[in-house]
Structures are given as structure tokens and as C-alpha cells.
Design goal:
- The chain is mainly α and about 300 residues long.
- It is about 65% helix and about 5% strand.
- It contains 14 helices and four strands.
- It has helices at about 1-15, 45-50, 55-65, 70-80, 85-100, 105-120, 140-160, 170-185, 190-205, 210-220, 230-245, 245-255, 265-280, 285-300; strands at about 120-125, 130-135, 260, 265.
- The strands form two sheets. It has a two-stranded antiparallel sheet.
- The longest helix is centred in the middle third of the chain and has 22 residues, at about 140-160.
- The protein starts with a helix and ends with a helix.
């Protein structure tokens, strides 16, 4: 059991950070800085992002974000997600955890790096109405879609597999709106109802698109190039992410609820057990959170 957990631990770390045996160099730097940052212990953001449910949320948000052809074009044309999907994942995790746990300066610097990369992510795509349109990754409209899909997915996964959120879902949306503002979104939603209204607006507008490019991307998310040790668990977590989607989005994505023959697969309970194994392998508290707590103690924010 110990050897298995050690192997799982190494491969999970490699998947999330690119380094199986050591902490990424940016994580200890979260202990640096001279202020508390945008979020503190006891915040809704710390509660949601400190939960293992974020693993399912990450799969779910990739599926949701892919529904917008402009957002998908940027990823498809520029990110190299097929050549180095784990590298892209590690970069995304770095930004999320730095904004969550880092100082104000660290969060702003991490966001600046992302926005500089986005400056080169431009091109054209055919929208759901058949018109050719230009896209740019820093376009506030596309950023808004990505932000709203993110908030919806992390709340949905936390509701099923996470823990109580201080202040409830609205507190999470309101606090994580700061990440949207850092990225250049002027008026991100501040309540869960506003998130749902934005999603409904995009859905009803007909701007979301199911085409061959989406099907190819969904297939890749379904079967990413993971180490064999992780594939059984990932299949469970993917099924759980699909189960957490609203039926109308599952239909657009061309996905169905998993089954074992004629019997529905118990995705929720199976995912809960799988996430328990991940927590056992990695420990209950992330190294990013520990580094942030070290900074906060130094600054006198924690007894």
C-alpha cells in the first residue's frame, strides 16, 4: 500500500506541477511578500480551493470553457495543449494558487505574466452562426466566459465533493471576482445567481458551438496522456465531472452519464472514494497553503 501511494503521489505531483519528487520553485515563494494578499484563511476562496473537489472542478471547467468557439480557438491554435497538456495544466495551477495564497504583489505579477502571454494569442474562428470572427485571449468577453465557467464549475464540484463554504456560494463568487478584475474583466458577477444568468445568456444566444473541433477536444480531455497508474482514477473523476454538468451542456458536449451495462455508474460516490485516495497520497493541506500561512504568521495575521 505504501509503495502504491508513493507511486500515485509522485505521478499526481508530476501531473499537477511537472515535478514528481520536489516542490515547484514558485511554491516556497508564496511565503514571501509584505501583505496578506487578496484572500485569508477562513475565506470562501481558501475553502473551495483547498478542497480535493478542485480536481473534478478542473476537468469540468475544461469541458465548459471549450463550448465557446472563441475560447476554444485560442487554446486549440496557440496553447500546445496536445503537445504539452501537463505543462499547460501546471501553468494554470500556478496562477490560481498564486492569486489564492500569494501576496498582492505575487498575484499581480502572476497575472501580468498570463496577460503578456495572452497578447500573442490571437486569430480567427467560425462562430456558431457561421460568421468568421477575430479573437484575442485578452478580449474581456472571452475572459468573462472563462471566468464564469470557472466559478460555476468550482462551485458545482465543491457542492458535491467539497466542504462548507464560509458565507456560502455568493461569498466565493464575490471573492473570486478579484481574479476576474486582475485579468481585465470590468464587472465580473458577484453572486451565484449572476453566474447562472451569464451562463444562460451565452446558452440562449446560440454562441456556444458543438462541432468537430469541440468533439476532438472533448475526446482529448476524456483520454489525456496520463501515467497508467492514474488512468483508472481519472476515468472515475471524468465520469463525475460529466455527471455534475447540467443536461443541456452534456448534450452540447456530446457526453452521456457513465453506465456499467444497463446500470448507471455511481460516479459521485466513486469520485468521493478516489478523491480520498488522492488526499491520502498528497496530505490534507497543500504546500501552497502552508507557504501562505508562513507569510501570514510572519506578518502577524495568525496567532
Amino acid at each position: 500500500m505504501r509503495n502504491y501511494l508513493k507511486e500515485v503521489q509522485g505521478e499526481i505531483r508530476r501531473t499537477f506541477t511537472g515535478q514528481p519528487d520536489s516542490t515547484p520553485e514558485w511554491v516556497p515563494r508564496l511565503a514571501d511578500g509584505n501583505d496578506a494578499g487578496y484572500h485569508l484563511p477562513g475565506s470562501a476562496v481558501w475553502a473551495v480551493h483547498g478542497s480535493m473537489s478542485t480536481i473534478v472542478a478542473g476537468i469540468r471547467v475544461l469541458l465548459m470553457q471549450s463550448l465557446h468557439p472563441g475560447a476554444l480557438a485560442g487554446v486549440y491554435d496557440h496553447s500546445g495543449f496536445k503537445e504539452d497538456p501537463l505543462g499547460r495544466l501546471a501553468s494554470t495551477i500556478r496562477w490560481i494558487f498564486t492569486v489564492t495564497y500569494g501576496s498582492t504583489e505575487a498575484a499581480q505579477a502572476a497575472t501580468h505574466r498570463v496577460r503578456k502571454i495572452h497578447e500573442y494569442v490571437q486569430g480567427s474562428y467560425v462562430d456558431a452562426h457561421g460568421s468568421t470572427r477575430r479573437y484575442a485571449a485578452n478580449d474581456p468577453e472571452l475572459l468573462s466566459w472563462v471566468h464564469v465557467a470557472y466559478a460555476d464549475s468550482f462551485l458545482a464540484a465543491n457542492r458535491i465533493w467539497g466542504r462548507p463554504v464560509p458565507g456560502g456560494p455568493d461569498a466565493y463568487v464575490r471573492e473570486w471576482a478579484q481574479a476576474g478584475r486582475l485579468m481585465g474583466i470590468e464587472s465580473p458577477p458577484l453572486t451565484e445567481a449572476a453566474v447562472r444568468a451569464d451562463l444562460d445568456r451565452w446558452y440562449c444566444s446560440g454562441d456556444l458551438l458543438a462541432d468537430e473541433r469541440l468533439a476532438e477536444t472533448v475526446a482529448f480531455i476524456h483520454h489525456p496522456p496520463l501515467h497508467p497508474t492514474l488512468k483508472p482514477g481519472y476515468r472515475i473523476l471524468f465520469a463525475a465531472a460529466v455527471a455534475s454538468l447540467e443536461p443541456k451542456y452534456r448534450e452540447l458536449l456530446g457526453l452521456q452519464l457513465a453506465r456499467i451495462g444497463p446500470v448507471p455508474f455511481p460516479a459521485r460516490s466513486a469520485a468521493r472514494a478516489t478523491l480520498g485516495v488522492v488526499r491520502l497520497a498528497l496530505g490534507p493541506v497543500s504546500s501552497s497553503e502552508l507557504a501562505a500561512r508562513e507569510r501570514l504568521r510572519r506578518l502577524g495575521f495568525e496567532a
